[in-house]
Design a protein that fits this description.
- This protein is an alpha+beta fold and 299 residues long.
- The protein has 2 domains: 117 residues, no CATH class; 127 residues, Immunoglobulins (Immunoglobulin-like, Sandwich), CATH 2.60.40.10.
- It is built from 4 helices and 10 strands; from the N terminus they run ααααββββββββββ.
- The strands form 3 sheets. The chain has a 4-stranded antiparallel sheet, with no helix packed on it.
- A hairpin with a 5-residue loop joins β1 and β2.
- α1 packs antiparallel against α3, α1 packs parallel to α4 and α3 runs antiparallel to α4.
- The longest helix is centred in the N-terminal third of the chain and has 71 residues.
- It is rod-shaped.
- The N and C termini lie far apart (201 Å).
Length: 299
Amino acid sequence: MENEGKILGMNQKRVYEGIIILLILVIGALSVWMFTARRHHITEQQKSELLQGRLQFELDSLVAQHNMFKLQHDSILAEKDSIIHINAEEISRLIAQQADYNRIRRQLNVLRQVTQNYVKEIDSLVRANQVLVAENVAMREEIQVATARVNVLQKEGEELRSKVEVASVLRGHGFTAQALRIRGSGREEATDRASRAEQIRVCFDIAENPVARAGEHQIFLRIAAPDGAILSLSDTYAHAFVHNNDTLQFSSQTTINYQNKLKNVCMVWQRTEAFRPGTYLISVYTNEARLGETVLNLR
């Protein structure tokens, strides 16, 4: 009996040891399984976060590129900018909600295509604008050349008009002046004595000039006495004319009919008081020019 009891006790001890070993194995296996399962869960979560981060990075890059491009071409992209931002906000919302990766990827590709199309459109507009700028530059250069040419032609025209004006002015030559004494019979007699002189007669020729204005021209005789006083019937405007913006008194005035041919003219000053000895300066004018001058000496 004692031996049987010892044998039974030993068997029970072995059973207990086996159970304990089994429990240890089970616990170990469960521990390994739980560690592996947890590690696997952590890996999947990290992978998901990594994918979301990658998607967010791509979205942020697209938006940043668009914003940079918009700064350069803001006026052109103003109408289309809202479309890009609406799509970008939608993709950001899907990423935050951890929506299906493929769905987000598809929308991200669509957004990328939209931005690329905008870039191509802007490039095309920029190239077209560059062409217009180049054409405008060329046109401005042509205008400058044409303007310079017009200025040259205007200057040449002004010079030509000046030459024509100068050429069209009447020219006088052959000026002579005589003091005359009138005899009782009316016969004229030249004299150089101031006390005997009653008239001063001035004669001259107006040269032939085919470019001068044909028709009536006023001629003014201006005689300055030895003291410089102008011999005139009065010092009013009735006996004055304008030359080069100056108002000058005249001694005598006549109107001629000039027909571009050589014409001889004589003008007379009838004394109003006795002539004084000395040198008389005699000048002849039209409204446009001075025809010429001469002197007369009386003793």
